[in-house]
Design goal:
Shape: globular
Number of helices: 0
Order of helices and strands: EEEEEEEE
Largest sheet: 4 strands, antiparallel
Structural class: mainly beta
Strand content: 25-35%
Helix content: under 10%
Length: 78
Amino acid sequence: MWDPARGTYKVFDPYDCTTCSLSSWGDGGEGGGFRNHRTAGTVARFSDSAGTVVHPSTAPDVAPSWWGWDPVWTIGNR
């Protein structure tokens, strides 16, 4: 994901059922893309503040640059 505060991409690389938190990560409505380059068939789960999956991503998968991050609080492969 593009991190406008740092002027670079933010890379999350979960291993072994790790969940990454996106604390304070609002996209301000601008959106940003992602690439799921895990082993084919691996599912990354983008969840909201309640833990509800708002988007499952089965590798390989690429989202367009306008994909909205506002509802996403965590990314995990559980």
